[in-house]
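Take our chain:
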Amino acid sequence: MHSVPASAGDRVDGADPAAGAPYLSVCLKRPNPPYLEVEFNCGGGEILALVGPSGSGKTTILRCIAGLLKARSGSIQCGTECWYDSNSRIDLSPRERSIGLVPQTYALFPHLSARQNVMMALNWLPPAERQQRADELLALVHVAGLEEHKPAQLSSGQQQRVAVARALARNPKILLLDEPFSAVDRSTRKKLYRELLKLHAALKTTTVLVTHDLDEASLLADRLCIVHQGRTLQTGPLKTVLARPANPQVARLLDMHNIFEAVIVEHRPRSNLTRIAWLNHVLETRYQPVAAAGEKTAWVISPSKVILHRGDRPSRGERENAMAGIVREVITLGDFTQVLIQVGEWVNFTLLMVLSAHVAQRNGLAVGKSIHLSLLGMAIHLMPCY
């Protein structure tokens, strides 16, 4: 292993993320364009994905962390180091922040070889050691044998690997990835996903990944931060954010279909039960006091938690949150089938259900078919209506 001076980025392990103490803490405000009102934390060794539509401010946030752009106020803390604090007038330069940045365009020097591109970030090493270390990093990202190739001679996937090797050359405490897979085809992207996860498992570098692709974030990230128009709408562990969006806006940004409004009927905290009125149904879910009895609430349920009853054994109401419906659309995508269901006589209210293709075929699901289904009570998530 090569030693590296503290100014070039000795990795500090930081607190155990399982204990809840953040390793990277970001709180930024910028009242002028590009607007920011951002706050999120990331544990040591975690991958946090900044997710949101194009123009939502994700790259701006990344540039602020890197020190390439300055927020009007706020703070950026990495481990025991303060990189930015408007109150204390601390603002470390990009060179003083131990970051490795992979921009969306990769930004490789076109006149330099892959090896030379990586060596540019190894100026903290003695000159005699730089080539060997560059070759080690290129081998780590699976481009061994291409050291003398210039960027124009490399595929998009190979260029991305070289950019990652260069970002890792300074032993960064934080790795910043800005839409790193957007320029590669789907098959290459899947291969790069696997390589990134293996690399992360080996190095445990705390990583902030910018992406507009929720599937990508779901595959790679430990934590999500949902961003819209420069604002953090929700941040937390991946599974928590996906299962329990903070409000309907977040649910829509997460591309959830089954988002509705209902009225709270009652809360039974001792029974861990909340009942809501939706259309002519009273649905039961876990105790969620987001509003008082008689007030409106928004609710959402994953399409995979809408359960089809067997055609030869329809429900008579004995199953949880049972109801009847009419199939309005059936689309099979590979091994899974998406079914759009009209609930009772309400033409404007449809539920999306996702089930395996063979189950859909076995039950003869087709447009116009009447079916019975259940909504899993523990999967119904209540939210404020705003």
User: Anything to note?
Assistant: DSSP finds nine helices and 21 strands in the chain. The first strand starts at residue 24 and ends at 30. The longest helix spans residues 186-203. Residues 6-98+171-252 form a domain with the Rossmann fold fold (CATH 3.40.50.300).
